[in-house]
């Protein structure tokens, strides 16, 4: 008997019929003797509907009140799914974030989980009850309702798995695993049977929208065995097959002796780049530039600063395209003159393409193959950033698909490992 | 400066435009310097939508989980209304039932309020913030989400007014007050400018659907000054006029020196009558009959037992028509033979018509005029029940409108008090 946490995405619970279907899937696990904690998202479209109502009233909704409204989507689903399980003759009980409770900080609309109480859940599991916990939501120290941001239910599930020391955390979604890249762009893209947390982090943060990045960080930190699998597969397939389907995300590098050098090509079109030119190069300059950006609650992705020439340096970074205007405004009014930059320039029409693979650590030549491939396609590289297991380039956004396809082919990702 | 609790019904907040309209109405009160606690219902149709989803999954939804689902409707409205108020430049903050907290018993779907904490609300009011509290919902001692049953937001508002010792509780609804009877049946029906709690209790319980009866009981018990008024009136009308519109429900009988003998004709079509015939008349028989009915959570309305003849008596009562089948089943399986009744007979095709008025106490002849009026219309009276301030009769349901019109005319209710 294992303790399993299962998360079901919005599409998986998007209608009454699908909720009943999910209940049957859960029943299969329950009847095999597993203890189950289920984290459903809101029914697909519901969170957008709620946020739409809010924006119709207040174009920039108050974050605290937006969370009050948005948190209702998951609350509806836990109740409905509990009923569906009871209808199948199972014991089930639902909890909202504040009932569990899931304690978060007070960063409304993008709160972070601090702690999860396990007392009630543990008692219910021991009584043979399937526990449903509303994803995406929590409560701060003052009792305010908070939400975790888009995809937050993934994080809820992983955090619950960590708190309960679950044997595995299954993320049921509408794709059947993690691919070498988006099959809509590269039809030859191949599903990975396993991938390391580090690779998944790079792939998730760079645009493979299978999992919320924070959930992967959480899973890595607390060593939660995480699996992404399809909620659309035949519910009657044997449990043993289902339990090994999808993509396993693991910290066990040694299980991947046959690992390919590169595991995938990630990309993100929702990026914008911003550069402050000729900034006097003195200690603390990065903080003086990015401090006000952080205070404005803007997330920064790539940051690049090259060696200074003549005592000045060009400082660049990328932000989400939706936050480009705000970031430019912050820099223009609070930073540019303060740090003595010559000019502030930005470009929202860029994209980022990344080559990711844990095998990169021990192989030379990955960077040169990447740059050569793009060069042969006539794609100009605007920025480069590397880590131990990835190489990211910023290019003009119209070249995104071309760059991804060319790199996927260059690294022979369509071929399974022998 | 007064402390005012205002409740807005589902129709009043049924769309984005109406929510904005309600916000303007609240702003008018706020700018006049009043402290305000606002209790909105769910957007009209929303509670039915949620219950519909639940029933699609579980024909008889689990009550605890149904409350989890149903409570979300009001949670959405408080958030949206708070945003609408902020959009008008006002300070506003919302609270769910568990955040306040509104402590109730654990009778899911029909919970009763035990206590309301006033600490947070009081602090916000003193800081000049308009407080929004989700109606219809609370939390039991164990932290489970509860709801108060249909119309429960009225009770939430009155309970808040009592806890905060508010100067007045305004129930904004889609009618402009309490009428002598339903104007759809009697076009000459007249709006009452004031009415006592006792009269309102009889009118509410008997089918004038303006206010949830429990809210009136609550208001009477805690001496909350209660006013029913229209949320559809011109939002730009002067506050002094709006504040005196509608119908005031008061415990101050002495303000009603000009009180008519009869204040209204109430009615209910959703009734069914049940009779156990020839029950041996011994102590405890009423309890033996109604105990199992109460255990089955069925509400009983009229109860009639006449003097026994030959040591047996006929015991009759009425229930809501929706609960008729269940009540008959309970009596048939658990009661009839146990108490030694000769037979069990029922009729779901009846209605109740009541003449209500506090002036009845000091006037003879009300009963005889009632019976004569029905007799002249050829309407047979099946059951009679009286209290100090009302006379109720059960008649065949097809006569309901005729009976109401005839009685309204007989007591000259279309004429205002001179």
Give a brief outline of the structure.
The structure is a homodimer of 418-residue chains. The first copy, chain A, is built from 14 helices and 20 strands. Chain A is an alpha/beta fold and 418 residues long.
In words, what does this structure look like?
- The structure is a homodimer of 418-residue chains.
- Chain A is an alpha/beta fold.
- In chain A, 35% of the residues lie in helices and 27% in strands.
- Chain A is built from 14 helices and 20 strands.
- Chain A has helices at residues 16-31, 46-57, 63-70, 72-87, 97-100, 119-126, 152-163, 197-205, 213-221, 239-242, 285-295, 324-339, 366-376, 400-410; strands spanning 3-8, 35-40, 92-95, 102-104, 113-116, 130-133, 137-139, 145-147, 168-173, 178-179, 191-192, 194-196, 226-230, 247-250, 264-280, 300-305, 312-320, 343-356, 383-387, 390-396.
- In chain A, the strands form 5 sheets. Chain A has an 8-stranded mixed sheet with strand order 3-6-2-1-9-13-14-12, with helices on both faces. Chain A has a 6-stranded antiparallel sheet with strand order 16-17-15-18-20-19. In chain A, strands 4-5 form a two-stranded antiparallel sheet.
- In chain A, a hairpin with a 5-residue loop joins strand 7 (137-139) and strand 8 (145-147).
- The longest helix of chain A has 16 residues, at 16-31.
- Chain A is globular, with a radius of gyration of 23 Å.
- Chain A starts with a strand and ends in an 8-residue tail after the last helix.
Secondary-structure blueprint:
2 copies of one chain form a homodimer.
Chain A lengths: L2 E6 L7 H16 L3 E6 L5 H12 L5 H8 L1 H16 L4 E4 L1 H4 L1 E3 L8 E4 L2 H8 L3 E4 L3 E3 L5 E3 L4 H12 L4 E6 L4 E2 L11 E2 L1 E3 H9 L7 H9 L4 E5 L8 H4 L4 E4 L13 E17 L4 H11 L4 E6 L6 E9 L3 H16 L3 E14 L9 H11 L6 E5 L2 E7 L3 H11 L8
Parallel strand pairs in A: 1-2, 1-9, 2-6, 3-6, 9-13, 12-14
Antiparallel strand pairs in A: 4-5, 7-8, 10-11, 13-14, 15-17, 15-18, 16-17, 18-20, 19-20
Helix pairs in contact in A: 1-4, 7-9, 8-9, 11-12, 13-14
């Amino acid at each position: 008997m294992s303790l399993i946490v299962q998360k079901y995405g919005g599409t998986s619970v998007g209608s009454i019929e699908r909720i009943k279907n999910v209940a049957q899937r859960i029943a299969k696990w329950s009847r095999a003797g597993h203890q189950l904690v289920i984290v459903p998202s809101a029914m697909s479209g519901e969170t957008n509907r709620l946020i739409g109502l809010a924006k119709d009233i207040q174009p920039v909704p108050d974050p605290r009140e937006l969370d009050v409204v948005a948190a209702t989507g998951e609350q509806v689903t836990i109740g409905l799914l509990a009923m569906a399980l009871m209808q199948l003759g199972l014991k089930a009980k639902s909890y909202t974030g504040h009932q569990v409770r899931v304690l978060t900080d007070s960063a409304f609309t993008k709160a972070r989980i601090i702690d999860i109480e396990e007392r009630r859940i543990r008692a219910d599991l021991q009584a043979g009850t399937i526990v449903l916990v509303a994803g995406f939501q929590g409560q701060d120290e003052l009792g305010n309702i908070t939400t975790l941001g888009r995809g937050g239910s993934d994080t809820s599930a992983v955090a619950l798995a960590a708190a309960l020391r679950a044997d595995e955390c299954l993320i049921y979604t509408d794709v059947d695993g993690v691919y070498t890249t988006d099959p809509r762009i590269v039809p030859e893209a191949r599903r990975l049977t396993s991938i390391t947390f580090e690779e998944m982090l790079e792939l998730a943060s760079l645009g493979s929208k299978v999992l919320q990045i924070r959930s992967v960080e959480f899973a890595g930190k607390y060593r939660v065995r995480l699996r992404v699998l399809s909620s659309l597969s035949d519910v009657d397939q044997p449990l043993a097959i289902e339990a090994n389907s999808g993509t396993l995300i693991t910290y066990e590098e040694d299980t991947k002796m046959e690992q390919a050098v590169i595991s995938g090509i990630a990309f993100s079109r929702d990026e914008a780049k911003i550069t402050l030119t000729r900034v006097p190069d003195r200690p603390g300059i990065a903080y003086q530039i990015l401090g006000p950006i952080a205070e404005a609650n803007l997330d920064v992705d790539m940051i690049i600063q090259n060696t200074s020439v003549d005592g000045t340096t060009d400082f660049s970074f990328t932000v989400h395209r939706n936050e480009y205007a705000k970031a430019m405004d912050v820099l223009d009014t609070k930073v540019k003159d303060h740090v003595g930059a010559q000019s502030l320039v930005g470009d929202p029409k860029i994209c980022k393409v990344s080559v990711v693979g844990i095998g990169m650590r021990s192989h030379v030549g990955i960077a040169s193959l990447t740059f050569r491939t793009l060069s042969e396609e006539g794609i100009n590289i605007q920025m480069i950033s590397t880590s131990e297991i990835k190489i990211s380039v910023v290019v003009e956004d119209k070249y995104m698909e071309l760059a991804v396809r060319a790199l996927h082919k260059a690294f022979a990702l369509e071929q399974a490992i022998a």
